[in-house]
Design a protein that fits this description.
Largest sheet: 8 strands, mixed, barrel
Structural class: alpha+beta
CATH topology of the domain at 961-1203: TIM Barrel
Number of strands: 42
CATH class of the domain at 961-1203: Alpha Beta
Radius of gyration: 45 Å
Strand order of the largest sheet: 34-35-37-38-39-40-41-42
Number of helices: 42
CATH architecture of the domain at 961-1203: Alpha-Beta Barrel
């Protein structure tokens, strides 16, 4: 029974592997080779990578520029054919190289129109094709841009062979140096460079002269498309998604290209502006969204092929359709086929034979046969369903072909009438309304499906028949109609009739809108656009004539390709989900300049199928019942014959199993000290084959490693003294630990023997060692942790007391580590910590100790020092090593280290005190600018104690609301009146002594008390100033300082502060002073809060402007309306012309931006006069009024009012 179950288990495992193996695939790495340097021309591919579209499709894509940093350029075709790239970007060279015999496939055209143009300086006219053919044209050899020019000459009757093409760089310098008369290049590139140089250009587009080539297109090799069409389709899908994103977010993608992607050969003065300019015109090339990205018009592709063939560029003719990539179709076959079924049957028969030959009961065979029967039944059902679907598909395909043919005939007939109308107008471009009506009346009489006929010279509807009911359409300018303009432009671009819609008519019903361009010959024999002729086609009549509305059709039908966009267009008939149904039949309906895709499947797909499947199931059930009865009968007979074998196994066998599981073996030693019995497991543990040979005590001891003599003595002592034995020993090969235990026993004759066990305790030893290591070492850096380090420090100090040598304790703290963690994540932060640990260890001796104290802090013990100079040298080495770059996966970061040094003896008596003092020395380095080292001094201790006492007193003062405030006047320079005041924190201790803000404000910032302090001062100042303003017509504004910590706090401090501001701003003008450091923090929350404050009418002022590192862009990004010139600039008025120039610049800039300016720190009349002369709005300083109590400030305001 056990063997049978095991076979079944293996069989099901094989089935599971077969079923799931195909579901998983690894990430595919591919290379996309561009045809030019990085720029917005390839924006969609970058967007697909940046937005994760490639990753979502299981692709890892390397996008390579045409030019390497060395200046070397590559051929996309060579990269593709060599296998170094799997995809490339090309244009007409794809068709060209296909004609040269290369196996290529066009995956998706991106530019529906080529961006190539002929450009010349303003002094060199480009009048017509004939005149241009006499110019010197600069072009890249073997490039598709030159090919377009040759095609333009040929299409306009000019022999391209007599045109002079010169191989010169496609730059403005080539024109300026008269090396060529015109360039054949990308229009946007030339216009951008000309704009930078201040040049005017003449432009000629080949697409305006009959050359309707596709532009940039994605392509690959035919080999890859055939072998791995799924990969190609995934890359195509992700690339098109990227292009949609890029075209919907042009500015964002253009800026990112300029910032992140380098150029090596052709450069622009302003690369960002060039990309943005390309983004603005790219719609002229993609026609998106009027034409879906990747759309191919096969007739237009055929025309392009014909032009290339006429130019003699097609050496090996081919069908243009063979160039196009076809999406892989999902397999419609069921996962089970007959070959697979035969393999399963063979495997099941093999299992059955093995199980019967094993002589075991056949209980499991019933399950095997049942599974086999189910698989066979499923296989038959699958075959029936497939056969049924094939028959239905054939029938559906025949019916659908008839419907498709009728649709094409109906649409073509209507387009023929429209084309005739276009020809009539082209022959009579100045026709009258009466002439138009007569012609249109005959057309509508011959083709009643046409609802009306309209003509629009210069794209403005002038003629329409019949007029009644259509008066509103007269005078319609298509250029101002975004709904209809894309289809019209497509008709003009492709120079053939197109069908748009269906659309819903105002007068009821739905219609297809057919349009055809009308071109007339000008005086020079060239075609020019006269306008558009259009006619709505009754779509219901089209459906009816095609047979779609026939009740006998018995098909579900859907049509997509609205506006002639084929399979990429919207579904306008039937249900869109029909196209995704399994077994659906599709065909293409082609007409004019567009196509539809029609899909169909039977209305009742299961007709007749249920009866066939039911018959199979009943038959299989009867066969299964018969087989199960036979198997049951055989099993019963087999069990009867084997019944006697069902007995309990011998106890020895049971014990052997227990020994194997527990890794325990038994042994016996007689009174003579001879081991005469070793169990099988004991032999395995000892690595010997005992056989029948006895082992003496010494020989037994030789089987263990270590002190063998000691083991022999212990064994003899246990026998002689009749005492138990318990030892832990290593095996002879030292690969495992064994526990040897024994108890003495005495027989009736008084003979003593040892009966014992040998147990493998290697895992327990390893666990103990691991626990000990985890308890004493840091899990990340593998350095001693704080407990082990403290133990080693105490030992080192004890050794120092004995040998009289010094030791140094270095406390190392990484600088800027929090920034690395916040910006790059904890994983990269851990890498920095590990590398920092290695660098510190590299700086010290093997006899020294390096430990991880906590977080980004390390501690170092330097033993046996003769002088402090050695400690200083090692500290300097650590600082230098930590200043070097840390190279992580894809980024490089910089940290640095602050090192504090404490010496023993001298700086402390205990290990804990030595650590504290080294820590204080480290913080002294932090305060001094970081990235250095410092020895501990007694003054540090005194400063630390003072700061601790001051911090405690500050907490008490804030909690008891003992903190007060002073108000310093802010005076209007024009009136000399106080218009505002700044609330400044003041602290008078209970003993009457004042504590300087320079002491307690930085302490509050450092300890996080600043938010409570700001709230308390602001609350009191609001109450005081509200009372002062109670009787004033024009209130005095309150200016309050806000710490950047308020915007970084995780508690409710910011919400409490905002509630106070919202309440106070209703009656009191408030200005919030922020620092430049807050703006540079790049916090979304900060930006939201500042915009909310501005919305409440609260002023936002940048304090100490000009002393920070913020960008001027913050003045536009954030709602700042006031600047405060720092006192360091004001103090230099009359002393330093540089500072005066900066003040003038700030005031001029503020005036242009509409910002108010307050100059702080005004202390002399000279400074005041200077600021007045420059029209500084307001001033503040001791010269105008020192910070004062609220009472004194109120008195000052009253005095100003009395004087007024």
């Amino acid at each position: 029974m056990f063997q049978t179950a095991l076979w079944i288990r293996h069989f099901l495992s094989v089935l599971l592997l077969v079923c799931v193996y195909g579901q998983a695939y690894a990430v595919d790495k591919v290379v996309l080779q561009l045809k030019w340097e990085h720029e917005f021309q390839f924006a969609g591919y970058y967007a697909a990578q940046w937005q994760g579209y490639y990753e979502r499709e299981g692709l890892e894509v390397d996008i390579r520029s045409w030019a390497a940093p060395t200046g070397k350029v590559v051929s996309p075709l060579e990269e593709l054919l060599s296998g170094r790239a799997q995809f490339a970007v090309g244009a007409n060279d794809i068709l060209l190289n296909k004609g040269h015999g290369y196996d290529l496939v066009m995956v998706a055209p991106i530019f529906q129109r080529s961006a190539t143009a002929l450009v010349s300086l303003h002094t060199t006219p480009l009048q017509d094709v004939e005149q241009v053919s006499h110019l010197r044209l600069a072009a890249v050899a073997d490039d598709d841009t030159a090919l377009e020019a040759r095609a333009m000459f040929m299409m306009n009757g000019v022999d391209a062979g007599r045109v002079q093409f010169v191989q010169e760089p496609l730059t403005m310098e080539t024109l300026l140096q008269n090396k060529a008369d015109a360039l054949i290049t990308y229009r946007i590139s030339a216009e951008t460079r000309a704009r930078e140089l201040g040049l005017e250009l003449n432009i000629m587009n080949p697409s305006d002269f009959g050359v309707q080539f596709y532009g940039d297109s994605l392509y690959t090799t035919g080999t890859l498309a055939r072998r791995n069409p799924d990969l190609v389709e995934r890359f195509r899908r992700a690339s098109l998604a990227g292009w949609r994103y890029a075209l919907d977010n042009k500015a964002e993608v253009a800026q990112r290209i300029a910032e992140q992607l380098p150029r090596h050969l052709y450069r622009y003065d302003d690369f960002a502006a060039y990309n943005l300019a390309f983004a603005h015109v790219i719609d002229d090339y993609t026609f998106y969204p009027a034409v879906e990205l990747g759309h191919v018009n096969q007739k237009r592709l055929q025309r392009t092929y014909d032009i290339l063939e006429r130019l003699g560029e097609i050496e090996h003719p081919y069908e243009p359709e063979s160039l196009l990539f076809s999406k892989p179709k999902a397999s419609q076959e069921h996962w089970l086929n007959f070959n697979w079924l035969l393999a399963v049957v063979a495997l099941a028969v093999l299992i059955l034979g093995v199980a019967l030959a094993s002589g075991k009961p056949a209980y499991g065979l019933q399950l095997v046969v049942l599974l086999l029967l189910l698989l066979a039944e499923q296989g038959l059902e699958t075959w029936i369903e497939r056969d049924h679907k094939v028959q239905q598909s054939v029938s559906t395909l025949e019916t659908l072909a008839t419907v498709r043919s009728r649709l094409e005939q109906v649409i073509s007939r209507n387009l023929a009438e429209l084309t005739g109308a276009a020809a009539f107008i082209a022959a009579n471009p100045d026709l009258t309304q009466t002439e138009f009506n007569d012609y249109a009346r005959n057309v509508l009489k011959l083709d009643p499906q046409l609802i009306n006929l309209a003509a629009a010279p210069d794209l403005v509807i002038k003629y329409i028949y019949p007029l009644p009911g259509n008066e509103a359409a007269l005078g319609l300018n298509y250029r101002n109609n975004p709904q209809q303009l894309p289809a019209i432009l497509r008709a003009i671009e492709f120079n053939e009739p197109v069908v748009a819609g269906p659309v819903t008519l105002v007068q009821g019903g739905r219609a297809l809108i057919s349009r055809a361009p009308v071109r007339v010959l000008n005086q020079r024999g060239q075609h020019r656009l006269w306008g558009i002729v259009s006619a709505p086609i009754d779509v219901a009549s089209v459906y009816r004539e095609a047979g779609l509305l026939d009740p006998a059709l018995e098909l579900k039908v859907a049509i997509r390709g609205k506006d002639g966009l084929g399979k990429d267009g919207e579904t306008f008939y039937g249900r869109a989900e029909l196209f995704d149904q399994p077994g659906v039949v599709t065909q293409s309906v082609s007409f004019g300049g567009g196509a539809w895709q029609i899909a169909a499947m039977p209305a009742d797909a299961d007709a007749g199928l249920s009866t066939r499947i039911a018959g199979v199931r009943i038959g299989c059930a009867l066969v299964g019942l018969l087989i199960m009865l036979l198997l049951y009968s055989q099993t019963q007979r087999f069990n009867s014959r084997r019944q006697y074998q069902k007995v309990v196994k011998h106890h020895a066998e049971f014990l052997r199993e227990v020994e194997t599981v527990a890794k325990v073996g038994g042994w016996r030693m007689n009174s003579a000290g001879v081991v005469y019995e070793l169990s099988e497991q004991a032999q395995t543990l000892l690595g010997i084959d005992f056989s029948e040979v006895a082992l003496a005590t010494e020989e037994f001891a030789e089987l263990f490693s270590g002190a063998r003599g000691m083991l022999a003595r212990e064994l003899k002592a246990a026998l002689q003294q009749v005492q138990p034995l318990d030892l832990e020993l290593q095996s002879k090969d030292q690969q495992s630990w064994l526990r040897l235990i024994a108890d003495p026993s005495t027989d009736e004759l008084g003979n003593v023997e040892l009966v014992g066990a040998i147990q493998d305790i290697s895992q327990q030893k390893q666990a103990d060692a691991k626990i000990e290591h985890q308890a004493n070492y840091d899990g990340l850096t593998n350095l001693p942790n704080r407990l082990l380090f403290l133990d080693r420090l105490q030992n080192a100090m004890a050794m120092s007391r004995r040998n009289g040598k010094k030791i140094a304790l270095l406390f190392v703290d990484l600088d800027n580590f929090k920034t690395i963690n916040d910006n790059h994540g904890h994983r990269e932060g851990d890498l920095v910590l590990c590398e920092a640990a290695r660098r510190v260890q590299h700086c010290v001796r093997a006899s020294d100790t390096v430990g991880r104290h906590s977080g980004d802090e390390f501690t170092v013990i330097l033993n046996d020092l003769e002088s402090e100079r050695t400690a200083a040298n090692i500290a300097e080495m650590i600082v230098v090593e930590m200043s070097k770059a840390f190279k992580l996966h894809d980024v490089v970061v910089y940290s640095g280290a602050s090192v504090g040094i404490a010496m023993f003896p001298g700086d402390a008596k205990s290990a804990e005190e030595l650590l504290i003092n080294a820590d204080q020395a480290m913080y002294e380095v932090k305060k001094s600018g970081r990235n250095g080292w410092h020895f501990y001094t007694d003054e540090m201790q005194r400063q630390s104690e003072y700061r601790h006492q001051l911090n405690t007193a500050l907490i008490t003062a804030i909690n008891r609301e003992e903190m007060t405030f002073h108000l310093q006047p802010i005076v209007d320079t024009r009136t000399g009146k106080t218009t505002a005041c700044e609330a400044l924190a003041r602290w008078q201790r209970r003993d009457g002594k004042w504590v300087s803000p320079g002491e307690f404000v930085p302490l509050a910032e450092e300890t996080g008390l600043i938010n409570q302090l700001d709230y308390l001062i602001m609350d009191k100042a609001i109450a005081a100033l509200t009372a002062i303003n109670a009787q004033r017509a024009v209130p005095i504004a309150l200016s309050v300082n806000v710490s950047p910590r308020l915007f970084q706090t995780k508690d409710q401090a910011l919400d409490r502060w905002l509630d106070l501001v919202r309440s106070a701003c209703r009656s009191l003008p408030i200005v919030v002073e922020i620092t430049e450091r807050l703006l540079t923090a790049e916090s979304t929350r900060t930006e939201e809060v500042l915009h909310e404050l501005a919305g409440l009418g609260i002023g936002i002022s940048i304090d100490d402007f000009g002393t920070g590192y913020s960008s001027l862009s913050y003045l536009t990004r954030f709602p700042v309306n006031k600047l405060k010139i720092d006192r360091s600039f004001v103090n230099c008025i009359g002393v330093n012309t540089t500072s005066e120039t900066l003040i003038e610049t700030i005031l001029a800039m503020a005036d242009k931006l509409g910002l108010n300016v307050v100059a702080e720190g005004v202390e002399t009349q000279l400074q005041l006069d200077y600021l007045k002369r420059l029209n500084c709005h307001s001033v503040q300083g001791f010269f105008l009024g020192r910070p004062m109590s609220a009472q004194d400030f109120a008195s000052r305001i009253r005095q100003e009012e009395e004087v007024a």
